[in-house]
């Protein structure tokens, strides 16, 4: 398949698999991604527990310990088309300017009513348009449960921090009771999942380090899939995902490094959200760029010296990525320094005012530090990105070269 033949996100996976025909590991990774939502739905229809949820880290170890498959609802975006967007706009009266990701998700939930996974775990503090979507889905027969995640601001400690921890422990047991009808958590199973997560984080860090010395072995799209949904949820198949990660490490350790690649590569940091416009990643590759640093990767490990439930709580309140965008700048700076980045890409969805504000703050901050950046906006539904977006990316990377 040629890049000009690509029409949708599944085509991009096929195209990327052909580009990486030398790598069995990348092929397996792309297959896991392509089958993720379909297989989660099939498992649910076969009687296994599965829920729609966000890929926001702490829930996933808990869900797997409760024998529940996490089906990340944002991944339905790649199954979407204009019809899904119109369902949200026309049937549910979502304003046209509403975030395209939310509208795609609502349209897909609408089409799946009564035939697929019918439980949704939401996070009320994440996104106001999604909060509206959760309330609407309740009226459509979905069993929706929303948790509250309270961020720990800098300087919050002592008694106030203990109150926050107690609050979040109650949230964890609330989710457990909603899923199982009981507040019982198997500590050993949860510990096993936390150890799995920490083990995989170490392996992914190794892959990222190996990519710096061999930047084009794994291109941008598989890297995003590996780090974003892969590390967060294991594509619903923890064992197969870890085997794929191990195989990828072996390949990277033994693959020859071409000196000309190290000379021509333009190291880049992806500094904001990752979308479904897979053509953007291909445009980066074609222009000689390599996404070697990513701000949103869940690489913070869980504590193993305390009880598993406490480890989930500490993951939230010790996580420096939480809270205002000004604190996230440090994570981007760390990525820039680590890979000696020559540029920063900031991507957000059309209609997401939150990301628009953050991106402008980041752009100004890094401009003042002498780091060139480009701010991009795209849509969530499937299909190639606009020619204007691709032209801007190519021009930006050419400028850096």
TrEMBL record:
Gene3D superfamilies: 3.40.50.11900
Pfam families reported for this sequence: HGD-D
Top-rank lineage group of the source organism: Bacteria
InterPro entries: FldB/FldC_alpha/beta
Required co-factors: [4Fe-4S] cluster
GO molecular function list: hydro-lyase activity
Family stated for the protein in its record: Belongs to the FldB/FldC dehydratase alpha/beta subunit family.
Protein name per Swiss-Prot or TrEMBL: 2-hydroxyglutaryl-CoA dehydratase, D-component
Organism: Sporomusa termitida
């Amino acid at each position: 398949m040629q890049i000009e033949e690509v029409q949708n996100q599944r085509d991009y996976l096929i195209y990327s698999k052909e580009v990486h025909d030398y790598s069995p590991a990348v092929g397996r990774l792309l297959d896991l991604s392509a089958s993720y939502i379909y297989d989660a739905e099939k498992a649910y229809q076969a009687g296994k527990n599965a829920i729609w949820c966000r890929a926001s880290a702490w829930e996933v170890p808990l869900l797997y310990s409760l024998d529940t498959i996490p089906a990340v609802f944002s991944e339905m975006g790649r199954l979407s088309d204009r019809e899904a967007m119109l369902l949200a706009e026309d049937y549910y009266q979502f304003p046209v300017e509403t975030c395209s990701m939310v509208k795609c998700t609502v349209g897909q939930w609408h089409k799946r009513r009564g035939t697929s996974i019918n439980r949704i775990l939401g996070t009320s503090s994440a996104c106001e348009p999604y909060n509206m979507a959760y309330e609407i889905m309740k009226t459509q027969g979905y069993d929706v449960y929303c948790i509250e995640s309270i961020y720990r601001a800098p300087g919050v400690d002592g008694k106030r921090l203990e109150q926050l921890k107690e609050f979040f422990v109650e949230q964890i047991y609330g989710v457990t009771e909603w899923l199982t009808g009981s507040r019982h958590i198997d500590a050993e199973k949860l510990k096993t999942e936390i150890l799995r997560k920490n083990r995989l984080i170490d392996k992914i860090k190794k892959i990222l380090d190996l990519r710096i010395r061999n930047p084009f072995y794994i291109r941008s799209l598989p890297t995003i899939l590996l780090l974003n949904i892969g590390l967060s949820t294991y594509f619903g198949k923890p064992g197969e995902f870890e085997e794929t990660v191990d195989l990828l490490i072996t390949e990277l350790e033994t693959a020859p490094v071409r000196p000309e690649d190290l000379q021509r590569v333009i190291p880049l940091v992806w500094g904001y959200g990752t979308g479904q416009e897979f053509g953007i990643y291909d445009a980066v590759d074609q222009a000689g760029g390599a996404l070697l640093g990513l701000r949103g990767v869940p690489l913070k490990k869980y504590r193993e010296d305390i009880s598993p439930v406490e480890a989930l709580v500490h993951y939230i309140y010790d996580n420096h990525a939480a809270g205002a965008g000004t604190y996230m700048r440090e994570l981007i700076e760390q990525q820039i320094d680590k890979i000696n980045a020559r540029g920063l890409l900031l991507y957000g969805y059309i209609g997401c005012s939150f990301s628009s504000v953050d991106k402008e703050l980041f752009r100004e901050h890094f401009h003042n530090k002498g780091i060139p950046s480009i701010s991009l906006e795209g849509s969530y539904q499937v299909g190639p990105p606009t020619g204007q977006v691709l032209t801007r990316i190519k021009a930006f990377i050419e400028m850096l070269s």
